[in-house]
Amino acid sequence: MTHFRSGTISWEPVFEAEGDATNTVKIRVDVVYRRSYPVSSFREFSNPDNSKLPGDTLVYQNLRFAGNVSAPLQFLVTAVNLQEDWLYGVAHVTHTFSEPGTYMAWLESCCRLSGLQNANDTQYRLETLIHVGEGKRSPVTGMPPLVQAPLGGVTSLQIPHAHPDGNEVRFRFADPSETGAGHVQPPDLSVSESGLVTWDTTEHSSGLYRLWNTQVVMEGLDDTGEVVSRVPLEFLIHLVEEEFSEPPVFDAFPEEALHPVAGEPFSFEVQASDPDELEVVMLSALNAPEGMTFEFVDPAEDAADNAVRLQATWTPASGNVGSAYVITFRATNHKQAMSDIAVTVLPAPGNRPPVAAAGGPYGLVMGSDLVLDASGSFDPDGDELTFAWDLSGNGEFDDASGPTPVLTWSDLADLGLNAPGTFTIAVRADDGKASHTVATTLHIVATSPSLVPLGIHRIADAAPDKPPLRVHWPAEPGFRYLLEKSTDLDGWSPATGFPATAEGSILEFRFERQPGADPLFFGLSFQP
Asked: Is the CB of residue 194 less than 8 Å from the CB of residue 120?
């Protein structure tokens, strides 16, 4: 017997630190091979005794790209099934494309299982359409490699799936050119655009294996309905006698998508039992994200005697944010009757701290009120902020509150800010989960800075072919100054610091003259 049972290929972009998408994509390949396939057929295998247990690795086949480019696939064995003779392997490939665009990647080899009722011993092909450069992701699925369908009636199953970007996903059968030479779909099988697989098996005769193969395509659509990603999904359908065995049922599981927060541990539980009290139920999980662990725990107090309960625990990393995971839980009894449920996990970003802005530097004439302004602060998550100020320098942040508090001269005197000088003040912005503190200066003077008359000055030597002209003027730190013009600025670039706050003792204006501009006249005055 040959070896290929099922597979899928999904992908997601790699982003720069600033959040912009690159031309690099992380591609994930999931396959299920016949576990008894000879070790010698693999290029490399981490355990040559042919144990093929979870944690083993195997190198087999290549992921191919246009231009005769390929990457070897190193599969990590994540699950095995001794009764059904399969192993589940996951490989990751990171590939950088030359420029943004739409590209294809594919896996192609021989052969599908010999015992199939259709497409047996045929070349298999999985191909995916990758959209590069805009940060788009592909849909993902948690479809198990084999599902059961009863003979002699109409049966249906929903393909579990999710789209990390929340986009619509459309389903169809794969074309013959997409599935490999010689592949044909099972007769009377259909799939809806929403992923509901329906099969009328009334006319099908029973047989020893009754294994059928199908491949569907998940198409990710953009807001206009255009296809921007394409993911293959191939799996097996096992026809069983209608009275074969009543399958187990799931008593408890998350019915809505889960949104764990990056950096914070979370857990959920799934419980299954069998209607036949004499049956023993086995419960397993497929397609779990890396690092998720599972532990059997005590069933609920009101559960059936043969109930089993599995607890999943995971702490998503920041790199998991934006990805989607569809975990399939399978309950099987000892007669190999089975049922599945899927749990979708969409990790959310952890809290991002606020960014505080203290305003300033501030300038104040003795005897005046001080108006502080932290309105430039913001929270990346949109959380509401509270503000606390430290003007005395004791680090207590209890001298004022709110984004724009007003302190009278008496208030400042109580804090020891009643003499000329330069003082450090700080504000703390808090979103309830994290805070950020930033400092600025307060410059107090005895009287308003005196104006040194500039008069009206003409700038005629800032020629277009000369470096920009800079005008420097003595200034008091923290006070605002206004540049007054007797002509407009047509033909002149805007002056930096217009109006300006003096950071030090020198106030600087910068002018650039364009060809044909008239001379510029200006004056300078203090704006309290």
From this structure: no
Residue 209's pLDDT is what?
58
For residue 1, pLDDT over 80 is answered with no
DSSP-derived secondary structure for 50-88: S---TT-EEEEEEEEETTTEEEEEEEEEEEEETTTTEEE
One-letter amino acid for residue 169 of the chain: V
What is the Cα–Cα distance from 127 to 10, expressed in whole angstroms?
10
Reference 446, options 420, 421, 407, 412; nearest CA is 420
3-state SS class at 410: helix
Strands 101-110 and 196-200 turn out to be: unpaired
Residue 455 is predicted with a pLDDT of 39
Triad 233, 236, 238: Cα angle to 5°: 150
Question: Distance between CA 361 and CA 501 in Å, rounded?
Answer: 8
Place of tokens 């920009």: 468
User: Which residue, among 137, 196, 127, 139, has the nearest Cα to 169 in the 3D structure?
Assistant: 139
Stated pTM of the model: 0.68
Instruction: Give the burial class of 145: count Cβ atoms within 10 A of its Cβ; 0-12 exposed, 13-18 middle, 19 or more buried.
Output: buried
Contacts of 288 (CB under 8 A, 6+ apart): 78, 294, 312, 325, 327
Instruction: Give the Cα separation of 437 and 336 in Å (integer).
Output: 61
Contact predicate 131/102, CB 8 Å: yes
Name 326's Cβ contacts closer than 8 Å, sequence gap at least 6. Answer: 140, 141, 142, 160, 161, 162, 287, 342, 343, 344, 345
| Measured CA distances, 153 to 5, 156, 245, 366 (Å) | 25, 10, 16, 92
The CB density around residue 10, as the number of other CB atoms within 10 Å, is 25
Contact 165, 158 (CB under 8 A): no
Q: What is the mean pLDDT of residues 117-146?
A: 92
The residue among 268, 269, 276 whose CA lies nearest residue 306 is 276
Radius of gyration of the chain (CA): 34
Segment among 315-324, 425-434, 517-526 with least mean pLDDT: 517-526
DSSP label at 414?
A: H
Instruction: Return the exposure string of 74-105: e unless at least 16 CB atoms fall within 10 Å of the residue's CB, then b.
Output: bbbbbbbbeebebbbbbbebebebeeeeebeb
Instruction: State the chain's maximal CA–CA distance in angstroms.
Output: 105
Pairwise CA distance, residues 505 & 175, whole Å:
75
Report pLDDT digits (tens) over 427-465.
999 999 899 999 998 988 877 555 444 433 444 444 444
* pLDDT, position 223: 85
Look at phi and psi of residue 141 and say left if phi exceeds 0, alpha if psi is from -120 to 50, else beta: beta
Alpha helix positions (H), 126-259: 176-179
Do 44 and 59 contact (CB within 8 A), yes or no? yes
